[in-house]
């Protein structure tokens, strides 16, 4: 919005020229989202604590110490993040850019699903929320609409094709099956982050790392000069997504202030579903779906650990891990919560560096 309002005045006031630059507006989105969360976070936490009473219900089948240490902590904390992300994106983004709207609406749509799920859990004082099948169906419909629209923004067959890391020219045209593939990416990313959100600060830092990585990828993919130099596919307009990624990074930093151990508030499904789906939508828009699997490899590991655990128990009656998702396995082995969180952060950084390296290794 600021770009639209102030760039017109740049002929009279030269300083407003800075609003033409994507890097400046991305920095502005980071700071706006960060300040917004800092300003309104404490009031929201107090309001949620009063309204929720006992806070987020703790699962009985989880680690025993959670029933003692985390009882009474309010959830839905990502309301502050989603608000900050929305305000910063609308303020600093180019509102005529369709890619920006697709990513933002996917984020808010999945956030509403997660919010209702959190509300049911708190109001019923139970760890069971939205029925899984209904929740999954709604997520798939929203993701399908977003993916279909993304295919209409580009030109066929590129808009329905998959690009592969390490190969500069190879594309696989999936036709309309690309929409199905995109749904898997977006819904899978949302639920993978949701599974990772189990310890204080565990999910938000890898999300910020992935958002920063994809902010750079979106900027490069949307720039004709840089994309040609790196031999990645140029997608006009996707650079604007970096403003959104900056907003996620800033809001995430603000949220981490309150979510750092011991957490004053939990992210809940409101945040994990919305932020994960946002990463999935960005990956689909920029044609870097496989890079997301690398950059967000920590989320993949968490999801796979659950799938393997369930499959093993149903087929053999035995469990591979002491408890799933993966971070609970290490809790059961006696690792301190802070140790698990920091080591998982380190893994997220390494995977992000590997993912970014694919941009040059073509």
The poorly predicted ranges are none
What is the SS-derived class? mainly alpha
> In total, how many domains does the architecture comprise?
1
How large is the radius of gyration?
20 Å
**Global outline:** globular
Biggest sheet descriptor: 2 strands, antiparallel
Q: What average pLDDT do the residues reach?
A: 87
- Beta-strand percentage? under 5%
Q: How many β strands by DSSP?
A: 2
H-E string: HHHHHHEEHHHHHHHHH
Protein architecture, described:
With 362 residues, the protein is an all-alpha fold. It has one domain (2-153, 164-357). Helix content is 67%, strand content 2%. The protein contains 15 helices and two strands. Strands 1-2 form a two-stranded antiparallel sheet. A hairpin with a 7-residue loop joins β1 (161-163) and β2. α7 packs across α13. The chain is globular, with a radius of gyration of 20 Å.
Short description:
This protein is mainly α and 362 residues long. The chain is built from 15 helices and 2 strands.
Strand and helix map with partners:
Elements: H1 2-6, H2 22-52, H3 64-69, H4 78-92, H5 98-124, H6 132-153, E1 161-163, E2 171-173, H7 177-196, H8 204-221, H9 224-230, H10 241-259, H11 268-285, H12 289-295, H13 297-316, H14 326-332, H15 337-357
Antiparallel strand pairs: 1-2
What are the salient characteristics of this protein?
362 residues; mainly alpha; two-stranded antiparallel sheet; 15 helices; 2 strands; 2% strand; globular
């Amino acid at each position: 919005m600021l770009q639209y309002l102030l760039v017109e005045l740049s002929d009279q006031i030269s300083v407003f020229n800075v609003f033409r630059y994507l890097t400046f507006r991305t920095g502005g989105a980071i700071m706006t989202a960060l300040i917004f969360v800092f300003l309104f976070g404490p009031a929201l936490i107090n309001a949620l604590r009063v309204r929720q009473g006992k806070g987020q219900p703790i699962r009985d089948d989880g680690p025993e110490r959670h029933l003692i240490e985390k009882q009474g902590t309010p959830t839905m904390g990502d309301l502050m993040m989603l608000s900050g992300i929305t305000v910063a994106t609308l303020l600093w983004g180019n509102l005529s850019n369709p890619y920006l709207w697709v990513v933002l609406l996917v984020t808010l749509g999945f956030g509403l699903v997660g919010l209702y799920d959190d509300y049911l859990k708190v109001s019923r004082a139970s760890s069971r929320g939205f029925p899984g099948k209904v929740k999954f169906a709604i997520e798939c419909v929203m993701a399908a609409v977003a993916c279909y629209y993304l295919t209409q923004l580009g030109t066929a067959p590129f808009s329905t094709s998959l690009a592969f890391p390490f190969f500069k020219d190879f594309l696989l045209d999936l036709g309309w099956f690309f929409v199905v593939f995109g749904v898997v990416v977006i819904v899978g990313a949302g639920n993978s982050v949701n599974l990772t959100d189990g310890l204080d600060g565990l999910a938000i830092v890898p999300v910020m790392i992935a958002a920063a990585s994809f902010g750079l990828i979106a900027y490069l993919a949307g720039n004709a000069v840089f994309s040609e130099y790196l031999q990645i596919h140029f997608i006009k307009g996707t650079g604007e997504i970096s403003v959104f990624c900056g907003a996620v990074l800033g809001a995430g930093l603000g949220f981490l202030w309150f979510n750092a151990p011991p957490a004053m508030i939990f992210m809940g499904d409101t945040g994990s579903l919305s932020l994960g789906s946002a990463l999935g939508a960005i990956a689909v828009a920029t044609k870097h779906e496989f890079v997301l699997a690398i950059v967000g490899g920590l989320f993949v590991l968490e999801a796979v650990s659950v799938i393997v655990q369930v499959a093993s128990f149903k087929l053999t009656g035995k469990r591979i891990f002491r408890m799933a998702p993966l971070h609970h396995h290490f809790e059961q082995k006696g690792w301190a919560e802070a140790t698990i969180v920091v080591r998982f952060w380190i893994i997220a950084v390494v995977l992000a560096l590997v993912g970014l390296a694919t941009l040059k290794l073509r």
